[in-house]
Amino acid sequence: MRILSGIQPSGTIHIGNYFGMVKKMIESQNDGELFAFIASYHALTSVKSKEDLEKNSYEAAINFLALGMDPEKSTFWIQHDVKEVLELYWLLSNHTSMGLLERAHSYKDKTSRGISANHGLFSYPVLMAADILLFDSNIVPVGKDQIQHVEMTRDIATSFNHAYNEEVFVLPVAKVDENVATVSGTDGAKMSKSYNNTIDMFTSSKQRKKQVMSIVTDSKELNESKEWENCNIYAISKLFMNEDELANLRQRYATPGEGYGHFKLTLLEKIEEYFKPYEEKREYYLNHKQEVREILEFGASKARKIAQNKMEKIRDIIGLI
Ligand code: TYM
Known about the structure:
mainly alpha; Rossmann fold; Tyrosyl-Transfer RNA Synthetase; binds ligand 1
């Protein structure tokens, strides 16, 4: 069984990415053949600075390695090192209706927030379909916001298979963990780099404190009892605490004299404790960038072999002789 997923290097990885997808992906190395890549081409839809793209790409690679990506067991690369994906993107474009792309939530959401649309943003799902189909992926672990893109991939693959009357592509299935399908940000909306409401996985203590302390709550006073049910601090704490710790926290909500500031500090401690074991490995890779480059190149060479093979078959099927 082949499992594939990618992440855009469009900023530091936040805990929404981590619980929504990265954690599941790293764990899936024990369940099947994992293909994981840094979606550098996709990031071009939002990152327009050379320095930022390079920095974010290293950052993403280093974070994955620190969190347990095993480059021997899995195939781990950066998207632009396997250029076959761009060829497939064009071939698939000719089997993708305008209507399908016009219905994409992510595109509609971005344009409705005033991001001016270009063709890259519009055709983003076709490139994502190429990523998935090029490697005959069966399972795609993602957060909720990407489910529709995987469904579109199935539509595109079906249309292609139908046109050539052959099972050229495997139909992939999105794998979503319902408990963390959408991790909320500090303001209660979906955690997202573009909403500026993230809590980052690896960042300075000062910055992390600033992010946690900015979690929005109601304005109940210290001596009032509080409700945990709809509280953003509680929602995020659920990711980091076990049932006993949560029961204790719920009790504190009911205790006058305990305030949101206290709950935030408890959460902050839990977050630091959670990511601490990975810091040392992260530090190592930060100081060995050449090794990171070599690991990605090794992954790309494995991915390229599969991609080249697949593209030869596809070209033959469609008559590109
Ligand atoms: P990206 O980089 O936006 O996000 C990476 C993963 O994190 C998940 N995610 C979340 N999950 C839960 N709660 C949140 N608040 C949250 N925010 C982000 C996303 O659902 C995603 O799984 N298009 C993809 C990258 C990509 C890809 C692919 C993925 C390119 N090609 C092929 C799978 C297969 C993206 O933008 O992810």
